[in-house]
Amino acid sequence: MTDAKLRDLLSSLTPMARELDALPAGRPAPDDSYVKLNTNENPFPLPSIVMRSAIAALERPYLYPENDNVSLREAAAAAYGMSADHVMAGNGSSELLSLIYRAFLAPGDSIAMISPGFSFNRKLAMLQGAQFLEVRCNELGCLPIDDLLFGPAKHAKFILLANPNNPTGAFMPVAEIERLLTQCNQLVVLDEAYIDFAPENALHLVNRFSNVLVLRTFSKSYAAAGIRVGFAFGHPELIGRLRNIQNVFNMNVVGHAVGMSILQHRRAYYENHSHIKHERQRVSGALSDFGFSVMPSHANFLLARVPAGQDGRWWQSALESQKVLVASFPDDGLEDCIRVSIGTREQMDAFLTAVGSVRRGADRSS
User: Residue 329 — very low, low, confident or very high, per pLDDT cuts 50/70/90?
Assistant: First the structure.
């Protein structure tokens, strides 16, 4: 029974916050006996030269980090060939994405996202009291420009594209994104979280178009998901206003140090990226042999339709019983899919062994 004081407190929440259920206590992270392939992490340790920067940063934990991330923004600008006023840094790209929602959306506004996409965006829109419009994209990644320009999305405050897309792994040619930017006046937020596994990137469009913000993260391709380093690139007027509403000391000293070190030593990740691309191809072929339909991917994961007879949730549970974790989705059109992150060769061998075991068990029971 909820007491009277708590009822009064809950009624004082904003209408948007009242729509959210209280989160349960949750489950602890899986122990090291599990093969964790469900959250698209990069499985390799930081290069030793980057790790040294993290350790050095802990020598003076009593000092606040640099406000406004000036040195980190300057390092990113130098690495990517632009001025520092085109760059903001964040506690992962997720922080920067939430700032964009706060800055652009008021109750009653709308935002359009290519679907299927990152589900957290629905919550971000709801918290602003905004309508969330999903524009379907086919599995080959073709950008539905006409639907974005002339359908309900034409009134959206901004359009969110992820390239490569999550959870499909599909890649949209940069020429298509450029065509959209040329024809629309809305802001286009381009999330390039997985771009280091793709054939080309769109960062150069920042210097040509004032209506684009490009997001990057060091979580996926630079093995720093737990350290939280992200960037947004765009016109100085947009970037400056977003920086002005950012939380003070939004990043910690380790994030600063690791971010700057990664920017200086990106070549140290070449073998890491090559391994993931190679394993992505190998595992895709092996899953096809097991009867899965694997979608072409330019990210560090694969989305695969499971063999007939079960759905994605069933396969997720069956693989978890083998101590292998993958992702499944309730979204329309994805119910019969699982998404598997690309890990080390040993992790992927363990995954394929578990798939074979589950497949044989399903065949015997049918």
Answer: very high
172 DSSP 8-state letter: -
Model confidence at 137, pLDDT cuts 50, 70, 90, reads confident
Q: Which of 169, 129, 133, 139 is nearest to 151 (CA)?
A: 133
Regarding whether 181 and 240 lie in a shared domain, the answer is yes
CA dihedral 350, 351, 354, 359 (to 10 degrees): -140
139 pLDDT above the threshold of 70? no
Cβ atoms < 10 Å from Cβ of 129: 15
In this prediction the pTM is 0.92
**What Rg, from alpha-carbon coordinates, does the chain have?**
21
The conformation of residue 285, written as its DSSP 8-state character, comes to H
Going by C-beta distance under 8 Å and a sequence separation of 6 or more, which residues neighbour residue 175?
A: none
Boundary (domain end) residue, out of 233, 264, 295: 264
Q: Tell me the residue type at 123.
A: K
Phi, psi of 14 (to 5 degrees): -65, 155
pLDDT-derived band of residue 103, with 50, 70 and 90 as boundaries? very high
* Structural domain boundaries enclosing 136: 48-264
φ/ψ (deg, to 5) at 140: -85, -5
Q: Identify whether residues 190 and 331 lie together within a single domain.
A: no
Angle between helices 93-104 and 236-244 (to 10 degrees): 90
- What does the alpha-carbon distance between residue 156 and residue 151 come to, in Å, rounded to a whole number? 10
Please tell me the total count of domains within the chain: 2
Q: Which of 286, 311, 324, 274 is nearest to 37 (CA)?
A: 324
